[in-house]
């Protein structure tokens, strides 16, 4: 018998087993609510509502600069933690306070809440901003890149600007 006649069933067996997965009992899990994806117009409106200098941020440059961060961080609502925590909802969150993420002791015991100013200093040089943290990223030395990343994150991570007080 030719060798390929013996190999083909061995290769097909795992594929057939995988194809059978999901068949049988119906799922009892509830599908996740659909996540609203901002339109370009909604992004522009949110960007314009940010305080200076972030309202002048370049979202496309922020997206490109953030590409260096994607190896460790996700930003979508419900996204997984990776080497770094998911950043959805980071603005206004106490440092080291994302449930189920294993922060360094330095971050767990840090006594601040993430805002644009803190994130700007963090992004400039995470090692000197909070010695003892486990982030290995060397930082973004360019102030315009930091501004743009912060604007990008505010637009993409569920940030809600505070409503202006009624006059």
Overall description:
- With 167 residues, this protein is an all-alpha fold.
- It is built from 7 helices and no strands.
- It starts with a helix and ends in an 11-residue tail after the last helix.
The ordered H/E elements are: HHHHHHH
Total helix count?
7
- Kindly give the count of domains: 1
How far apart the termini lie comes to 88 Å
What Rg is obtained from the alpha carbons, in whole angstroms?
22 Å
Compute the average pLDDT: 83
Q: Which sheet architecture does the biggest sheet show?
A: none
Q: Segments where pLDDT lies below 50 for 5+ residues?
A: 6-31
CATH class, named Mainly Alpha
Principal-axes shape call: globular
Assembly state (oligomeric): single chain
| DSSP strand count | 0
Helix and strand content put the structural class at mainly alpha
| Proportion of strand residues | under 5%
CATH fourth-tier homologous superfamily: Cytochrome c-like domain
CATH architecture: Orthogonal Bundle
DSSP helix fraction = 40-55%
Instruction: Report the CATH topology name.
Output: Cytochrome Bc1 Complex, Chain D, domain 2
Signal peptide: 1-19
Keywords: Electron transport, Heme, Iron, Metal-binding, Signal, Transport
GO molecular function, one term: metal ion binding
Organism: Brevundimonas vesicularis
Question: Short description, anyone?
Answer:
The protein has 167 residues and is mainly α. The protein has seven helices and no strands.
Features:
167 residues; mainly alpha; Cytochrome Bc1 Complex, Chain D, domain 2; 7 helices; 40% helix; 0% strand; globular; electron transport; electron transfer activity; Cyt_c-like_dom; heme
């Amino acid at each position: 018998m030719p060798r390929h006649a013996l190999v083909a069933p061995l290769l097909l067996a795992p594929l057939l087993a995988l194809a059978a997965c999901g068949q049988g009992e119906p799922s009892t899990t509830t599908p996740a609510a659909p996540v609203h994806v901002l339109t370009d117009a909604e992004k522009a409106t949110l960007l314009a509502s940010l305080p200076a200098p972030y309202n002048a941020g370049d979202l496309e440059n922020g997206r490109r600069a953030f590409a260096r961060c994607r190896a460790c961080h996700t930003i979508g609502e419900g996204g997984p933690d990776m080497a770094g925590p998911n950043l959805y909802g980071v603005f206004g969150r106490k440092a080291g306070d994302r449930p189920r993420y294993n922060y360094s002791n330095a971050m767990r015991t840090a006594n601040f809440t993430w805002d644009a100013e803190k994130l700007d200093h963090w992004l400039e040089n995470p090692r000197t901003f909070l010695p003892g943290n486990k982030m290995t990223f060397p930082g973004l030395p360019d102030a315009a890149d930091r501004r743009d990343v912060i604007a990008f994150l505010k637009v993409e991570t569920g940030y809600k600007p505070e409503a202006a007080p009624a006059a």
